[in-house]
């Protein structure tokens, strides 16, 4: 047990192996005001430990949860380039990504392929699933240290490449990702964000963007494994899902895939290594209704485990960071 400070009205933060730091708060009755009063203390815990799960706030509705999100952040972000659709509850307040309940969302850093990504992720559980569905977390600096040096050195040299093929069936549609289906507006966005784009004969869009795989934390200076190389790779998909998508869309038309920055395919063996190191460093705690979780999006990767039953977790992205703040960006030429 480790107290936040002798004078802090907050309860002690609990540290147990295999679990994220947990702070048990007395039911305040007015969660937004409680969050505002303890904003700096909570953010200090996140700065020191990478994340914290706050239990006892009794969050139950969108309005109250959104108010808590706003009081704990420096500003909520509008999501762009989403890999999967979300429901929008309010400005900057979203559902978790719509992903099959029986399929895991493997470890990743939110929007790590964009030129402006959230420094802070906020999650609030309104309805907990009957089984599974935890939001796991993993320390990105530790993951980097435990990955094979030869592999991480290659990714540091080359970066990583994300390829996307937009359709209206799998993943985010063009409108969901860019906020518009106007070609000129999409092309302007791509050019401004160093995304290579190619319109297909059927009118669909394919894109490529090269990004850094390792990010230096803008506050601590620690080097972090910061990307979505494993999660968005074809080999992370369940075999039957991958086979179906390849059959329907072709190997080059998958909704998303990742490659080495130089364009070489990433083999199944590499993805297996990445996911094994993530799993070895995963901390998890089952959601309880009313829980709030704050995650440093650079220092800490997060996942979503398969679940059964109804699961409602609200999400907000906050405190925007640009790679130029902490790492050089790999650029590609837009077409």
Protein model, in words:
With 335 residues, the chain is α+β, with helices and mostly antiparallel strands. 25% of the residues lie in helices and 26% in strands. The protein is built from 9 helices and 20 strands. The chain has helices spanning 31-37, 39-49, 62-72, 140-146, 149-158, 174-178, 183-192, 239-249, 268-280, and strands spanning 13-14, 22-24, 51-55, 88-90, 93-95, 105-108, 117-127, 131-132, 137-139, 160-165, 196-199, 205-211, 214-216, 223-225, 256-260, 282-283, 292-296, 300-304, 307-308, 312-321. It has an 8-stranded mixed β-sheet, with helices on one face. A hairpin with a 5-residue loop joins strand 11 and strand 12 (205-211). The radius of gyration is 20 Å and the shape is globular. The relative contact order is 0.24. Residues 1-7 and 325-335 have low confidence and may be disordered.
Cα Rg:
20 Å
The helix content is: 25-40%
Average residue-wise pLDDT: 91
- Judged by helices, strands and strand pairing, the structural class is alpha+beta
Q: Oligomeric form of this entry?
A: single chain
Number of helices: 9
Order of helices and strands: EEHHEHEEEEEEHHEHHEEEEHEHEEEEE
- Overall strand count: 20
Between the first and last Cα atoms, what is the distance in angstroms? Answer: 55 Å
Beta content: 25-35%
Please outline the major beta sheet: 8 strands, mixed
Shape: globular
Low-confidence stretches: 1-7, 325-335
What strand order characterises the main sheet? 1-2-3-17-7-20-5-4
